[in-house]
Amino acid sequence: MTHDQQTSLWYLRSCSMFDLCSESELEQIGGMARVHSAIRDSQISLDQVGSHVYFIKSGFMKIVRVLPDGNEVVADLLGPGEFFGRIEDVSGADIAPFTEEYAVAIDEVMVCLFDRPTFERALMEFPSLNKSLLAHVADRVEYISTRLVDMAFRSANERFDGFLSRMAQRYGIRNGDSTRIPIRLTHSELGMLTGLSRQTVVRLVGDYRRMGRLEMTSTEIILNHNS
Predict the structure, then answer these.
(1) How far apart are CA 137 and CA 122, in angstroms?
(2) CA distances, 31 to each of 2, 99, 174 (Å)
(3) Which residues of 24-60 form beta strands (DSSP E)?
(4) Residue at 145 is within a domain
(5) Residue range 102-109: average pLDDT?
(6) pTM of the full structure
(7) Integer angstrom CA distances of residue 174 from 18, 92, 144, 177
(8) Which of 99, 158, 192, 223 could form a disulfide with 74 if both were Cys (CB 3.0 to 4.6 A apart)?
(9) What is the Cα gyration radius of the chain?
(10) What is the pLDDT of residues 68-97, one digit of tens each?
(11) pLDDT: is 87 or 205 the higher one?
């Protein structure tokens, strides 16, 4: 096994998408993958065909969608163990009509990537990977559905609370009476992700800070649970 294959295998072992694969299967899949690093603010284009599939080993990416009028919005956040690259149609799930999207590294990111034909071949050869993909896509759909319900029916405070709770559950590191979420987000990005205006987010962040419930730094969000 080459050094690159050993590196890919090491990354795949830490990605939940591959938990159902045996060691022998992982070795074969690792030989199909490449490791890629992205520095903060660098971009990865996501084309309509979905030429590549990316699995995040470390760091965080934001998915940016270009609207018909040319404006850009942050559509989602993704962290370690998650994937991107218009993978849904590979799994057989229904997808929306194509809109221009690209991924932006929030911090330094390491990913394992497959070209599309190789990943489709891996799905055919390894049923455990196919099963895991379907489960992960189902989880993603449920997560997006919850966000849409929040935006449609919840108050501003409830949306903000729900977003912070989901981020803490997905990416948080509990430390005593606080949870640290190692993601750098602006007020505008928080607004896009919660369906709130930037002004509303600024007000809510200020309220939560005064109550001692929230801290935001240049590198992380900290939730305090004893306030």
Answers:
(1) 17
(2) 9, 32, 35
(3) 34-38, 43-46, 52-58
(4) no
(5) 92
(6) 0.80
(7) 25, 36, 24, 8
(8) 192
(9) 19
(10) 888 899 989 999 888 888 765 554 444 454
(11) 205
d(CA 189, CA 24): 42
The domain in which residue 179 lies consists of 154-224
The pLDDT score that the predictor gives to residue 95 is 46
* Token couple for 202: 């600024």
CATH number of domain containing 172: 1.10.10.10
Residue 218 binned pLDDT confidence (cut-offs 50, 70, 90): confident
The burial of 16, by beta-carbon neighbours within 10 Å (0-12 exposed, 13-18 middle, 19 or more buried), is given as middle
Domain boundary among 107, 136, 165: 136
CA dihedral 142, 151, 222, 57 (to 10 degrees): 40
Write out the two tokens for 17.
């998408």
| Strands (E) located in the chain | 34-38, 43-46, 52-58, 61-66, 72-78, 83-84, 101-105, 109-115, 173-175, 178-181, 214-216, 221-224
Nearest Cα neighbor of 27 from 11, 5, 52, 3 is 5
The Cβ-side half-sphere exposure at 103, using a 13 Å CA radius, reads: 27
Q: Across the chain, what does the average pLDDT equal?
A: 85
Which pLDDT belongs to residue 151? 85
| Statement: residue 4 has pLDDT above 60 | no
Residues 129 and 33 grouped into a single domain: yes
Helix axes 198-210, 156-171, angle to 10 degrees: 70
